[in-house]
Design goal:
19% strand; 14 helices
Length: 441
């Protein structure tokens, strides 16, 4: 077996002088519907090609021949926070992209709750043109400064490269303002992504009712804060016809509302995060700020409803809501730590184990939730493993067990509820734009 070439994360010069050959892999391609054992060959121009009768010489070829590998088109996460500009001590475009690549992602959509907020064409172009390990497709603010009062210049932001509009981290709770946002976004053919939580109903809560909340005397975050927000968003979707994407749902009743809206034919999509699918409020181990997130973890009944929503297609895609914070801020304890957990580097293992192994989800359906549906949401053609396509894929080892050590993650942050836990399955390499990155191969 030839030793794989490893290009360091962040190295941006395309490597197009060597071909790449996997003689025996599982090919999992939701675009073409392929789930089969086979070979994959990438030519020196970076395209997927038939395996040649005569392989190139060793100096012009990298061979990866390791049993148990799965190749899937590059994963796409439509919900990440890279904190750049404004909080680059927690994450920046380079470190966030490195974390994404280590997790098997080749495309990400960054959220605009930066400082300053991403409500100008200059900041959109800055993110869009960043030379990083993954392709960044920024979302832009729905309202000026994310203040929820005045619709942002959506047309100019879209021209600069914004693929969606959101005030993520805050809901546009004024229905009159949200209606204007949705009508203008509809004309542009872009979705509005909403962090559906009504602040007047969340009442300063930080956690759903559970034993840890009772033991620590934590303020409760009522499920109605999310459910009523989802209900209001769907009503505006019905009125405007704008594509609405609901972020990080956590409640069973929210899933029911989305199911009914989709049955009605409304252009509503919704995402499930790995942590909301795998963990419940009852799992919170104590006064640990790394378990505080917004919306908070739901009950076990909520978890079951979310899983069923993924299985029946109500929740059309996965997204991590990768939300890094400094270690010092998360060490303040559950009551005062900021909301958010990181998730890019653990996403494959958590979602494959939860949805495929535990719930019996079809592997192609799992792949579609990370590849097909996220790309379609933002108007991109999903990558594929078909002959002639530009090579853009992740290499997975779905049987590898590994322990999550925050000190060994690419993210600058360590706020993960899986710290010290053993996961089964991970991405081990990615290929994009002629570059083969092999952090764990």
């Amino acid at each position: 077996m030839a030793k794989p070439v490893c290009y360091p994360i962040g190295a941006m010069k395309p490597e197009t002088t060597k071909a790449l050959y996997f003689p025996r892999v599982r090919l999992l391609d939701p675009t073409s519907g392929r789930d089969e054992e086979g070979a994959l060959f990438v030519d020196a121009e970076g395209r997927i090609a038939p395996v040649p009768e005569r392989l190139p010489s060793a100096s012009r070829l990298t061979i990866v021949d390791r049993p148990g590998l799965t190749i899937v088109p590059g994963l796409c996460d439509v919900h990440v926070h890279f904190r750049d500009p404004g909080a680059t001590d927690a994450e920046d475009l380079v470190s966030g992209s490195a974390a994404a690549a280590n997790g098997g992602f080749t495309r990400v959509v960054t959220m605009p709750n930066t400082n300053p907020a991403t409500d100008t064409p200059e900041l959109v172009r800055r993110a869009r043109s960043a030379q990083t390990a993954v392709a960044i497709y920024p979302s832009a603010c729905a309202t000026v400064g994310r203040m929820g009062k005045t619709c942002a210049a959506l047309e100019t932001l879209e021209q600069a490269g914004a693929v969606a509009f959101s005030d993520d981290g805050a809901m546009v709770s004024d229905p009159a303002v949200m209606k204007v946002v949705m009508l203008r976004a509809k004309k542009l053919g872009r979705p509005v992504m909403d962090h559906a939580v009504l602040p007047e109903l969340s009442q300063g809560g930080v956690v759903r009712d559970c034993p840890t909340a009772q033991a620590l005397g934590l303020p409760i975050f009522p499920p109605e804060a999310e459910v009523e927000a989802v209900r209001a968003d769907i009503a505006l979707c019905r009125e405007t016809g704008c594509a609405l994407h609901l972020q990080h749902l956590s409640c069973a009743e929210s899933v029911e509302l989305v199911r009914a809206a989709r049955a009605e034919g409304l252009p509503v999509t919704a995402e499930a995060t790995p942590h909301h699918l795998a963990l419940a409020a009852e799992d919170i181990p104590g006064n640990d700020g790394n378990w505080r997130m917004n919306p908070p973890l739901g009950t076990r009944a909520d978890v079951e409803a979310l899983r069923q929503g993924v299985l029946d297609g109500t929740l059309t895609l996965f997204a991590t809501d990768h939300a890094p914070h400094t270690r010092a801020s998360k060490a303040k304890g559950f009551k005062t730590a900021p909301f958010g957990v990181i998730g890019l580097e653990t996403a494959v293992g958590v979602t494959w184990d939860t949805m495929v192994r535990q719930c019996g989800m079809a592997p192609l359906a799992w792949a579609a939730c990370w590849v097909t549906h996220p790309n379609r949401l933002i108007g991109l053609r999903p990558p594929t493993l078909e002959i002639g396509a530009p090579a853009e894929f992740a290499v997975l080892d779905l049987e590898e067990t590994w322990t999550v050590d925050p000190d060994r993650l690419a993210s600058k942050s360590a706020d993960t509820p899986w710290a010290g836990k053993t996961l089964r399955g991970r991405a081990v390499a990615t290929y994009r734009n002629g570059r083969f990155r092999t952090p764990f191969l």
